[in-house]
Amino acid sequence: MKSVKLIHENLNAGGGAERLAVASLETLKEMNCSIDLITFTEPNWQQLERIFGISKLRSFVNSVVKVDIDFLLGKGNQTESSEHNQYDLVMNTHGDILPSNMLAERGKTSKFVTYCHYPLVPELIRNLKYDTVLRNFMEMSKYRYSSLEKLRQKALAVYNQMMNNSTVLTNSVFSSNAVHSLYPSINPKIIYPPVDIEFFSRVVSSDFREDRIIVLGRFNPDKNIELAIEVARLLKAMDFKFEMSIVGNISKSYYPYYHHLEKLIKKYGLSETIELKTNLDINNLLDLFGKSKVLFHPTIGEPFGICVAEAMSAGLMPVVPSFGGNTEFVPQHLRYSNNEEAVKIIIRSMDATLQQRAIMNGSVKKFAKRRFKHSLKSLLNKVW
To answer: 212 and 361, same structural domain?
Structure first.
C-alpha cells in the first residue's frame, strides 16, 4: 500500500481548488493508498460531504495533521508523530497560494506533485498582497519571525523550491503559460479539474427555466462579485425583467465582504431582484441550475472556472470575461470585455434554445470527473 501526504490549506473553503483536492482524495483512495491530510484547518466533514455530494469522505483519510506556518517553512516539528515521516508521495493540491517545504522531505521521499491552479505567490509577494496571508499564518505560529520582509523572502524561496522540485500539474493552457513564464524550466502537465458532468446533466433539458441569472463562486473579494451587482443594476435600468441568485460558500473571515454585498444590493434597490445563498448543498444547486438560464461569471483572469463548466453541463448559457482560462472552452460570442457587452450577451442568452443548451453540455464533457481520475492515476503510476 502506497503512503501519501496530501497538503491543502483549508478544505472547508469549498471552492474549485477544494473540489479538486477532494477528487484527488477519491482517486488516491481508489488506488488503495494510505492518506494523511496536512491542513491548517480541521475539516468539517459533514459539511464537505453535503456540499460535494460524497458520503463517508472522512473515511478516505487515515489521519488529519493540523499544522501552522512552521511546517510550511521548515521550522519546528513537521508532524505530531514520527510515523508521518515516511511517504511514497507528497502532493500539494493548493499550489497556487500555499508554499510547501518539499526539501524538508529529502531523504524520506523524492516523489513530489504540486497542482498549481495559477502561480499567484510571486506576484502577490511583489505587490505585498501576500502579507494578509502571511499575517494569518503568523497568528497560528509558535515561531516569532523578526520581520515580515524576512517572512516574505522565506515564503518565496520555499515556493520557488517547491515548484522547481515537483512534478507540476495545472488546469489550462492559460495557467500553464503563466507557470512557464515564471519558471522557464517547467512545462506543466495539464490535467483538467474534475466536474460532475453526469450529475449536473440531469437538468440540461429542464422545461422549468425562469429568467434567472446565477453567479457562482466563493464569497471572496477576489471573485469580484460587485461586478455582478453592477450588471444587475444596468439590467434593471433597462427595465429588463430577471432574477439573480448569487451562490457561494463562505468562511468566517469573509462575512464582512458578504455584508458589504448586502449593503450594495440594498443601496441600488435590488433587494427584490437579487438573493444571496451560502453553502448550498449539491442537490439544491442542481435544482437552482434547472430553473435558471444564464451563468454570469464576474471574475476576470479565472485560471479555469469549475463553476462555469458545471453550469454549462446543466445547460446554462455562460457569460464570461474575455480574459482567463475559461476562454478555452466558452465560445467567443459569450465573452464580454465590459459591463455593457455583458448585459447584451445576457439578454440575448435568455432566449437560448434547447439545442443550444445541449451544445453547451456537450462541449464540457471532456472535464468529467472520471477523466480527471484517469489522468491523475496515469500520472501517478508513472511518478511511482
So the answer is: yes
CB of 214 closer than 8 Å to CB of 182: no
> For the chain, what is the mean pLDDT?
92
Distance (Å, whole) CA 362 – CA 332? 16
Answer yes or no: do 317 and 241 share one domain. yes
Domain count, the chain: 2
DSSP state of 82: G
Same domain, residue pair 68 and 41: yes
Over residues 185-228, the pLDDT tens digits come to: 999 999 999 999 999 999 999 999 999 999 999 999 999 999 99
Spatial separation of the C-alpha atoms in residues 170 and 183, rounded to whole Å: 13
- Residue 59 grid cell: 473515511
89-92 and 335-336 strand pairing: unpaired
For residues 216 and 232, membership in a common domain is answered with: yes
Is residue 249 within 8 Å of 306, Cβ to Cβ?
A: no
161 and 274 share a domain? no
pLDDT at 136: 73
Nearest to 285 by CA among 255, 244, 248: 248
Residue 170 cell numbers, joined? 495545472
pLDDT 10s digits, 170-184: 999 999 999 999 999
CATH at 235:
3.40.50.2000
What the block records as the C-alpha cell of 48 is 464537505
In this structure, are 49 and 170 located in the same domain? yes
Quickly list H helices, the chain. Answer: 16-30, 45-52, 69-73, 121-126, 131-140, 148-164, 173-182, 197-200, 226-237, 255-267, 282-290, 306-313, 339-349, 354-363, 369-383
Based on the fold, state whether residues 14 and 150 are members of the same structural domain: yes
State pTM to two decimals: 0.92
Structural domain harbouring 313: 197-367
Helix axes of 226-237 and 339-349: crossing angle, nearest 10 degrees: 70
DSSP string, 62-79: SEEEE--HHHHHT-S-SS
Let me know whether 21 and 167 are in one domain: yes
